[in-house]
Amino acid sequence: MSELFDAVDALLASRSPLPPPVERKRLRQAHGLTIDEVATALKVRRATMSGWESGKTEPRPPEREAYARLLDGLAKLYPAPPADTPPPTPANAVPATLTAAPDPAEPRTPPTEPVPPTAAMTPSENTQTSATAPVAAAPAAAPRPARTTRPSSTSRRPTTKKTAPATPLAAGADPRFENGPLAVIDVEDTRTLAYCTGGLVLDAPAKSLPSLVDWTLKEAKLGQPKLSGPGKDADPLLVLTEAALERYGLPVTLTNEERLAGRLPEDHKAVKQLARAEWKLTKRGFGPWARIYRPANGSERACVQLCIPSWNALDTRHWGTAGQLPPAQLAHVLGVYASRVMTPRGSTAVTGLELMTALHPATRASQPDADGKRHSELNPASLGKDPVDPAPCEAPDGHPLLKDLPRFHVRGPAEKLFEEAYDWARPMTDTECTLRYLVGIDVNLAFGAGANGLTVGLGAPTHVKNPAFDPKLPGSWLVDLSHIDLSRVKVAKDTWADLDASLLPSPFTPKGDRPKGPAWYATPTVAYAVELGYDVTPIEAHIRYDNGRYLDGWYTRLRDAYLATMADLNVAADLPPQDFLAAMDGSKDRDPEPAIVVSAIKATVKGGLGKLRERPRGDGWRPGEPWRALSRPTWRPDIRAAVIARTRINLHRKIVKHAAFTGQYPIAILSDCVVYAANGPSPLDFLPYHQGKPLPGGFKLGINPGLVKHEGTQSVLWGEEVRERFNAPELNLARYIKDGTVTDVDNGE
């Protein structure tokens, strides 16, 4: 009989009555609960909880019964108020009122509460790419944005416009940006809608592009607070769908000429329309990531950024299928990225670079002078507001510092700093050919981990002859490391190990070749030579005495964003090795939206570091002439070189520890992916775990940056067949280990 009762209880639980989605949200907010708190209590993901509140999805047992119990208890504490009574506001929330847009036939009355100020923007390129400051007062007659019900999963058509109850803000939230950092603008049935984060949909009563910009700054309450004390708030971001492009007279796709130019022509009607309304565009013009602004008026700032997915603003290599998502889902994906990283300001590479500046602004307010006034002064933790020239060895080919070199001169290692990621492979030994599998492991967020705790130069270099090497000083060193023999190296403080150097790549060159004489190296590379037990005698150096751990905050924010998003995919940071491999297997297929965000975060790390040495892009550039990126204080090839050097050294250190303990050597390395031969298809078939603990200083499975995950497995026969087919005994198998597809001979690109 008890089994029958249990079955009946299960049926009742499967249909536990739930209030409408709007009421669910009201009850949670009335009690001062966040979505994360409720999601944690019910043991579901935040995205799942948001779906329940927006009506996009419905809970199923056993969570449905627990959710119904929570809502029932909250309903007793906070009964639905009468139509003319505002709902209760928790003590820790800031009340904010949102009313419906007035009927055009009715006279408009000014709001009784202060309205956020408007923004303005300086015409300089550096200021144009930074975050926003507080905005200026809107005209008193401007209507407030209207909330509408978020569409259900079966229909994207919103319900009719209506007044929504006042929504309390979370504790510490900025009321100026009540509706989130961004909105996806779409048009349905002649109505222009702004899909915001959290499932909110606003009416956007703007019939032209200039009026849309005005509405965004005066009424939409979009934006994001600054990330650091001296910084500036982020500009609101509008993402325009194809329907919105047609609405505002913009092409759905760019012509081939426009795509190559990266912008609309100056005589396009939309550009002229903005000019007539006294709006300006930055130097990059009206392209996939357009910034529309008015010149600064004192400290006031007015700037809105546009993102146009159909113009390839969301590169599929980094954002996957984000550009094809429905408006509400796209707003959610970009909103998660914005909340965990920052509001996108262009490509992931541009955003990665802008994040560095947002965390370490170039200037800050000084202490009050004798008259009580504050002035702008250098922020000591930043790279400053003025660019600095690199050392000649750090300058890439074509840089103005090298304009006096003979034409077609090729600089060698003794003239050029060449710190790059690994691209190395070797033929398999007879013993390795008897094994069954090739297993690839990949270092998580490898370049981010390389930036963590790294001391980099903040200012210009100082040239020194015959210096004593100091591993604490960032810089570039001309030193001969050809005497270092990998067959005998230190693997611990006083412990030497004998290795087979023919099976190891050199840690001092990207191709793994042993150095043949003096060459330029970044500090981490020279420090590793000392760590291996060998003396070094630099010939000269370019040292940066003004230095600091500039990238620590940048790494921490991106690491936290990465771990939080992987947790959305049910991959936790403390899983045992076998459980971690199981959780990672197919994780990206479980929920495509977090998988998109993970991909974008990874691209932000690599792209941001790559931007530190951005090369010229067209514009009629000729070798020896300056290019636009050189005017940025964040054009710092020395910092990029130091991060890459440290990342490569970190990987080599693990490879040496693994070889000394197990006698196993890598077959191929590509950047942060290493391939080993093994008798089984899993990393656990060659990684030396003892009672669940990894080799100290070696490879460890896990999701944290610097730890490794399974990249892919192929058979040894596959590897030999591929190399034989292309007549390439040293073909880099790490490039193809993930899916085994080899489309052409490996040319190293």
Helices and strands, with pairings:
Elements: H1 2-14, H2 21-30, H3 35-42, H4 46-54, H5 63-77, H6 125-128, E1 147-148, E2 182-188, E3 191-196, E4 201-203, H7 209-218, E5 237-240, H8 242-247, H9 256-261, H10 269-276, E6 280-281, E7 289-297, E8 300-307, H11 316-319, H12 327-340, H13 348-359, E9 363-365, E10 376-378, E11 423-425, H14 430-433, E12 437-443, H15 446-451, E13 456-457, E14 462-465, E15 475-480, E16 488-490, E17 496-498, E18 518-522, H16 523-531, E19 540-543, E20 547-548, H17 552-568, H18 577-584, H19 587-590, H20 592-610, H21 637-662, E21 668-670, E22 673-678, E23 708-715, H22 716-725
Parallel strand pairs: 2-5, 5-8
Antiparallel strand pairs: 1-4, 2-3, 3-4, 6-7, 7-8, 9-10, 11-21, 12-22, 12-23, 13-20, 14-19, 15-18, 15-19, 16-17, 21-22
Helical content class: 25-40%
How far apart the termini lie comes to 70 Å
Shape: globular
Strands, count: 23
Can you list the strand order of the major beta sheet? 1-4-3-2-5-8-7-6
What is Rg?
Answer: 29 Å
Nearest-integer average pLDDT: 86
Q: Compute the number of helices.
A: 22
Strand content: 5-15%
Structural class: alpha+beta
Stretches with pLDDT under 50, minimum 5 residues: 84-168
**How can the largest sheet be summarized?**
8 strands, mixed
Oligomer: single chain
Keywords:
single chain, 749 residues, alpha+beta, 5-stranded antiparallel sheet, 14% strand
